[in-house]
Structures are given as structure tokens and as C-alpha cells.
Amino acid sequence: MLACLLLLSLLLPDCAFAASARNAPAGDRVWRVIYVEGGPFSDYQRIFQGLALGLEERGLIENGHVPLPKDSEEARGMWEWLHQHAGGKHLVFLADGFYSAGWDSRQREKVRQDVLRRIREKKDVDMVLAFGTWAGQDLAAQDLPVPVIVSSVTDAVDAGIIPSVEDSGRDNLVAPIEPDRFKRQVLLFHDIFAFKKLGIAYEDTPAGRGSIALNEIEDAARELGVTLLRCTDTFDIQDADLASERLLACHKKLVEQGAEAVYLTYNVGLQAAAMRKVLQPLADAHIPTFSQLGAPDVVHGALLSVAQSNTAEEGRFSAGLVEAILKGARPRDLSPVFESPVSMALNLFMATLIGWNPPLEVLAAVDEFYQEMK
User: Where does the record locate the signal sequence feature (predicted)?
Assistant: First the structure.
């Protein structure tokens, strides 16, 4: 301990976590948990739901059947539900422990300062669940004495949250990562439709390219010998209606360029209320689509994507990380690598619109069918 305290005086980051862990009571310790996000996102909801179920399965809480909110991407209600109903003797989801910047860059800094002040000065936090790139970046850059688990990041390495898949770079940090997740989506899409020209729309900035894992999409295109047709614009804006109009224009452009399929990347313009209009040019041209986001886009009209169960698996994986940390593991020593099972979601209404009759081998891989565009 003396050596560690001496190192602390030299401001070496990992000792802060080591000292905290060594002073922690064993066995019957109750861990106080907070949640931090950049803003509402449906992926966070489903991963958080999977996390809660995983914690129940591992006996860390009594009730993990937190309901998903209807017609909302907010996770605050889910957090409040867990605070009231989780039960158990190991984890407490603090009533005032939910932090969201609401996708406001100014609020982001306030949230960061509030969280850091609480951890370092109030000292009533034992673990942080960080969801998304903003939260991951803001907390990974700090020398914190508590474990931080970062979830739902497209590419934690590219985002600068961790230096490599093999090493998180900090003793208190672990960031679950599914290598080549989006490359495998494109390969799966190609297995079904054998397209030669794939269209994508995205924001051509470092953050925009990173948020959609453009490097993985390009790797898949090179491997397949597919031409990547691109339409770029500014989509990461507060005005979702304007983002949708820009995305609609991009889809019209991709049709004109001769796209044979379109990979729908993460995009502010893919709002539920605007999906039918935004996808109409592609449907009129009988062009199949695959959503990078997942089943929520399929509900609203995307032809294909991964099923919701795939996203929940990341949450269950994170529950295993929580259990290991509670048992004394150093987050840095935990493997962050996981791989979701292959299962798909299919919108049968969109399949009819584009004149596609799914073959039996595709239907066999589909876990979730949707009959309409909501």
C-alpha cells in the first residue's frame, strides 16, 4: 500500500483505482452505481435491458425485467424502474444517478464535471455504466478510482476510448467490443442479395466516419469486390427534420447513381416519423436495405437488420463484466471481446414493396418478423 501511495503522489493514474479496490470491503459490499450517456438512443435501451436481465440471471439483482419505454428512446425511466424494483444485496442503482447530456455539447461538459466531482469529492459512487461514445470518451480520459464499463460504442479503439482491443489502457476501464461487427453485417447483406454497387449516406467528418465504422464497411466492400457509392452531408444536427430531408436527398442521389442495395448507417435523419418518406425512393426503385442500427429501423421500414436479441447480448456480456468486478477482478484484465449470434429482423411489408420473395434459407435465419411500417 505504501508503494501505491507513493505512486499516487506522482499522479500515476492506475494507483487511484488500485488503492480503492484494496480498501474495499469484501463479500457483503453493496456497490453504488450510476449511469452516464451522451443522449437518448434506442441501442442504449436494449443493451441496458439485456444488462439488467443478465444481472438477474447471475443473482446480482432480484428483478431485471425492466420494461422498454414505448415511443421513446429515453433510458431514464428504465433507470428509475431499476432503482425501485431491482432488489438484491449487491447493487444499488442510485436514485439521482442518471446523467444525460441530451446530445447537447454544452450540457456534455456540465455532465462530465458533475460526474467527476461526485466521484472524487462526494465519493458515493462505486461503479459507472457509460453508454455511447461521448460518455466513454469523457470518462476514459480521467484517472478515476472506480470501475467504468463502456457500452454501445461503434468502435472504442477508433473513438480513442481504448488504445487497442487487447488493452483498455487503464486499470479501472473495460469497453466491450465486437470486432468486425459491421463488416459482418455487410457480408451477410451481400450473401443475400449479391449486389455489385452498395450505397451509403454519412457525414464525412472524423466523428461521422467513426460513428458508422466506415473502415469496416470499406473493408467489406474491398473483400467482396463491391463498388461503394457514397453520399455525404451534414447529418449530426439538432434539427432532425432537416437531417431527414438531407437523407432523403441522398437516397434519391444513390438511386440515380445506380445503387443495387443500400446500407442504412447510423443517422439522425432516420427518425421513426420520417422513415417511410426517407425510404420511399429506395422502395420505388426496388432497392433492398439493411439497417446498421438494428430492429428498431426494421419496425419502421428498413428491409433487414440484426434482431433485437443481438443487441441485448452485449448487455448480458456486460453483466458478466460486472460480476467479475464484484468478485475482485481488475477491469483492465477482463477480455472485452464478444460476438453476437447471427439472427435477423425482416420487414415483410417492405419485402413486398420491393418485390422480393425471401428464400427459405433467409427465413430460417430470421427471428423477428414485422408485417407493416409503423
Answer: 1-18
